[in-house]
Amino acid sequence: MVGSALVRKLEMSAGHCIITRSRQELDLTRQEEVEAFFAHECIDRVYLAAARVGGIKANQEMPADFLRENLQIQTNVIHAAHTAGVGRLLFLGSSCIYPRLAEQPMAEEALMSGPLEPTNEAYAVAKIAGIKMCESYRRQHGSDFRSVMPSNLYGPNDNFDLDTSHVLPALLRKFHTAATTGGQTVTVWGSGRPRREFLHVDDMASASRHIMDLSPAQYWSVAKPHCSHINVGSGTDVSIVELARLISAITGFKGQITFDSSMPDGTARKLLDISRLKALGWQPETSLEEGIAQTYAWMVEHWNQVGETA
Ligand code: GFB
Predict the structure, then answer these.
(1) pTM higher than 0.90, yes or no?
(2) CA distances from 127 to 56, 173, 217 (A)
(3) Among 52, 56, 59, which residue has the most ligand 1 atoms within 8 Å of its CB, making it the best to mutate?
(4) Which of 40, 53, 147, 252 could serve as a FRET partner for 109 with CA atoms 20 to 30 Å apart?
């Protein structure tokens, strides 16, 4: 999802050549394959968006996979980029790096100030390691390796598999299915009380490009050597029940919303402090309503491919 949005964004301007590899062509968990790729291509800038990602259920059920694969991918890419002399790298993390009880909105300085949320601790630990790798390569080798921490992302090419997806695509699928098949109820996991901040993936791509293009002096005027990451979010959050009502209205569902209290809530609230991002001159453009309507249209248009997932 993020990779394809980055390519769409980069294709909008000339003057560079975009090099991509599909998962089938290059397995980023294989160190030798990654080293051979960087040795062969002449790469100036790297957007490191590749990761094993998933919603609350997938994170809870497969912590070993989330920890191992993300550590492998980012270690291989960051070190190979350094060895090949890549000029600049942008590592994409996640807002789950912050402590589960972090003060809201969460500033970059909240990193490692308290215990993590258990439902995604493994993934968060991998992402924290990625930030610290970028900082360490800068300290030891002078590498211009930067990090951005997005809030919950959504948009075209999202994962709509109900077992492994995040909440927004899951609810789009559930409400659409009920609305088009005469379903009377839609079940939302947990209490509906947790609050999340959602950002359209095209805004994330735009913010990533903006941060990548800043001069070192501009970036490091805001980023700090031991706290170098920049939060990227929309600046507002909604409760899961508010999100469900919004998606219900957009899909035209007329039935009842019920809650499955046997499913976990996860972090009570995740709202990022985006002061650093604003100081660097970037603002989000897509409202949640517009973004959901656009993603819903995309899902319906690609229903054959979406419907193949569970
Ligand atoms: O998006 P989500 O899976 O992940 O869930 P997190 C957010 C909230 O939505 C939780 C509730 O309180 C879920 O219980 N929810 C309600 C649902 N209905 C559904 C549903 O049908 N599917 C899903 N998936 N959730 C993830 C982390 O946390 O966020 C990752 O596990 C990562 O590590 C990612 O950070 C951005 O926001 O809780």
Answers:
(1) yes
(2) 16, 28, 25
(3) 56
(4) 53
